[in-house]
Amino acid sequence: MKIAKKAAAVLCAGLMLISPGVVSHQAFGEFPATLTVKAAATEHDISKGNVTINDSEEHIITGSTTEYKVIISGGSPTIRIRNLTIDLSDHGYSQSWRPIDFSSAGGECKLIIEGDNIIKGNGDCPGIMTGSKKLTIDGTGTLKVYGGRSWPGIGAQGGRCNLVIDGGTIEAYGGYRGAGIGGSWSNPGGTVVVNGGKVTAVGGEEASGIGGGYGSSGGTFTINGGEVTAKGNGADDVTGEKKINSGIFNGEDFTPASFTVTIPSTVKLGESVDIKLGDVVVGKDRAIDVKLIKASGKNNTLALSVNGEEIPYAIKKNNENGDEVKVGETVLLATENSNVKLYFTEPTTVPKYTGNYTGTVTFMVKVDAL
């Protein structure tokens, strides 16, 4: 009898292989090396006026202001903010008062945070405006960012938030009906990826912590590492397609699950098979669950058939006198390398017709909470 093997992995991620560097040494020969020399970063003091950037170089911005802003009007710059405070919260409801605006960048940009930084948008602006070009935030400092009315702390309109967070300690607060990170009122969240750092995102009224603003879809949110806390305010904490591969989400440790399940392809009645679970890596309070979910007999029963005639059989653990396993039951639940022996009992009835009686059973493999 053939056993159909089907496996579905829930909360499963592939393994990352990191190869060591290899250094080759020769006794003789020339080994040319290229050194790239770059200009020093341009420094700006925000207290002296608006900072407008239209290149792909590195810039350092410091200082404090309640009047001026940072505008990236082109290029793919790296912006390093160092103990920067921009508070435009008293400038009414005009969209012209965006504290840091990446929406017109010509390519992918980086925002490096150093020291302690506070960014506050006015009544109709986000704290940090992203755009369709990817913005990557990294660094070792802290960043507190606040959106104005209907706007996210970090994000954009029309699902154009394209944000990657690699590091730093970030707190993002949405304004009324704006997400903490993601979309504004009635706008989806776009794409948010967290690879590292510590991120706290708090939505405004009826908006998600990470995702869409009030009345809109969430977009795509992926955690590959780091620590993320998302808090909705009358809405889901996170909306949209959520991919959590590792790290910590809302205080719970997530580890990328990986495993190998071996299920033989055939077995005869009166014999047994070993289902083996190896290479197991699972997170805290999780286990690999191998469950018998389907059989090919009529009404989902354990039976072999030919020409419409069926022979019932049973599956028992370990041997013919073991506990019976029924369709819908778990055959193996483990947090480490394990195996279980399943015995397929011989028929108790004699077939009416000669022929090759066959059937299939299907197993589901997934990662479950204990």
Structure description:
This protein is mostly beta strands and 370 residues long. The chain folds into two domains: 42-254; 257-369, Immunoglobulin-like, CATH 2.60.40. 0% of the residues lie in helices and 45% in strands. It has no helices and 34 strands. The chain has strands spanning 4-5, 42-45, 51-54, 58-65, 70-74, 78-87, 100-101, 109-114, 116-120, 128-129, 135-139, 142-146, 154-156, 162-165, 169-173, 181-183, 191-194, 198-205, 210-211, 220-223, 227-233, 241-244, 247-249, 252-254, 258-262, 272-281, 286-295, 303-306, 309-312, 315-317, 324-325, 330-334, 338-344, 361-369. It has a 16-stranded mixed β-sheet that branches. A seven-stranded parallel β-sheet has the order 3-5-7-10-13-16-19, with no helix packed on it. Strands 25-26-33-30-31 form a five-stranded antiparallel β-sheet, with no helix packed on it. A hairpin with a 2-residue loop joins strand 28 and strand 29.
Short characterization:
The chain is built from no helices and 34 strands. It is mostly beta strands and 370 residues long. The two termini are 33 Å apart.
Q: Features of this protein?
A:
single chain; mainly beta; Immunoglobulin-like; 34 strands; 0% helix; 45% strand; elongated; disordered N terminus
- Counting helices, strands and paired strands, the structural category is mainly beta
**Number of extended strands:** 34
Strand content: over 45%
Distance between the termini: 33 Å
Q: Quick check: average pLDDT? A: 85
Largest sheet data: 16 strands, mixed
Name the shape in a single word.
elongated
Oligomer: single chain
- Number of DSSP helical runs: 0
Helix percentage: under 10%
> What is the count of distinct domains?
2
